[in-house]
Specification:
mainly alpha; elongated
C-alpha cells in the first residue's frame, strides 16, 4: 500500500490487537465530534463498525497513518478549536483545521 502523504511504499501493521482497534475508533469519534471534517467523513465511512468488527475482518493500517490518527496533540488541537468555536459561537473556526 502507498502512504497518501509520502507516496512511499509502506508495510501495513499485522494483527494490531483489540485495544488498538478500540483506540482508533474512540479517537476517530472524538475528532469527528470536535468538528474535524476528515474525521467526520472517516466516521461516516466506518458505518458504526465496532472494534470487534474490525478485528474479525482483520483490518490493518500503516503505522504512520495510525499514529497520525491517534496522535494526542492532534486530538488536543481539534478539541481547542472546537472549544474556541463554541466560545466564539462561530463554526467557521472549525474550518481552520489544517
Amino acid at each position: 500500500m502507498i502512504n497518501k502523504k509520502s507516496q512511499v511504499l509502506e508495510p501495513v501493521t499485522r494483527n494490531p490487537g483489540h485495544e488498538c482497534y478500540e483506540k482508533f475508533l474512540d479517537v476517530v469519534g472524538q475528532r469527528a465530534l470536535y468538528g474535524n471534517l476528515d474525521f467526520v467523513t472517516l466516521k461516516q465511512r466506518l458505518h458504526g463498525l465496532s472494534a470487534q468488527d474490525l478485528e474479525e475482518n482483520h483490518a490493518v493500517w500503516h503505522r504512520t497513518c495510525y499514529s497520525e490518527v491517534t496522535h494526542k496533540q492532534h486530538t488536543e488541537r481539534d478539541k481547542k478549536r472546537y472549544e474556541r468555536a463554541l466560545t466564539m459561537k462561530d463554526s467557521s473556526v472549525l474550518r481552520d483545521i489544517l
